[in-house]
Amino acid sequence: MEKFNIQEYLDSGVIEMYVLDQLSDAEREAVEKLAAQYPEIREEIAEVEEAMGTYHTLEGLTPPDHILSNIMAATAPSTVEEPIVTALPKRTLSIIWPMAAAVVGLALAAWMYMGKQSAQQEIAALKKTTENLRANEQVISSRLQVTEQELNELKGSCCAERLVVKAGDQPIASVYWNKNARLAHLKMENLAIPVKGKQYQLWAFVGGKPVSIGVVDWEALQKGLVSFEFKNKPEAFAISLENFGGSPVPTDVKGASAAVVNQG
């Protein structure tokens, strides 16, 4: 059995018709049964009655100008060059005034319904904007943490030298070599995600030969700097893609840096 959708029922305009007494006896009875069962419907009826002021205070409500002008245009008498004025029987007048009140009431109900729909759309848009702002805040916070980590890693490294590892003309990583601390700090620039079963490996050239500095933890590299201790004096750096766990010699070199100025 399909679950009763209260919000859809509230948005249908039935409540406004109920307050304006525009429903049949069976329809009114159905509304009253639902109101007895669901407090949301009772609250909506009370709000609509208060907003409309019911028919006893109908003259105190002021709908938008375009609704009033449309009603006045629809009920205005037609004009001809020689208007003929005919007195209407009292019975006819007694019928017209309730009909006019019903027209105004229905117009007010439509006005309130459209206002509710517009408000709900604005709330949904504001909610979406808030969610986007929160998501951006998380991204900015994450980037700030990475920056703070990098600053902490490089703090006091007055002699740290930055070397860009390139694949052709494309930078793929940076290596900050601190000769005093004998540390190589690796930072990702445009490294592609390693395929399953593969892992990046950082190399240093010593005496013209590649020496492994260590394999790269991809998840850690995405969060910021990854540091490696290296006791030798590097001449340059390179990055290769190897089987998971690394290789004794580079087999798939992805890029290399320029020569190190301060080897130590």
Could you give a quick summary of the protein structure above?
The protein is an alpha+beta fold and 264 residues long. Helix content is 45%, strand content 21%. It folds into two domains: 103 residues, no CATH class; 97 residues, Sandwich (Immunoglobulin-like).
Count the helices. How many?
A: 7
Portion in beta strands: 15-25%
Write down the overall geometry: rod-shaped
User: How many extended strands?
Assistant: 8
Order of strands, widest sheet: 1-2-3-6
* Termini separation: 78 Å
User: Mind telling me the C-alpha Rg?
Assistant: 38 Å
The helical percent reads 40-55%
Instruction: Count structural domains.
Output: 2
Write the SSE topology.
Elements: H1 6-10, H2 14-19, H3 25-37, H4 39-52, H5 65-75, H6 90-154, E1 160-167, E2 170-178, E3 183-188, E4 198-206, E5 209-215, H7 218-223, E6 226-229, E7 236-243, E8 253-256
Antiparallel strand pairs: 1-2, 2-3, 3-6, 4-5, 4-7, 7-8
Question: Would you mind describing this structure in some detail?
Answer:
There is one protein chain. With 264 residues, the protein is α+β, with helices and mostly antiparallel strands. It folds into two domains: 6-72 and 90-125, no CATH class; 160-256, Immunoglobulin-like, CATH 2.60.40. It is 45% helix and 21% strand. Helix 5 packs antiparallel against helix 6.
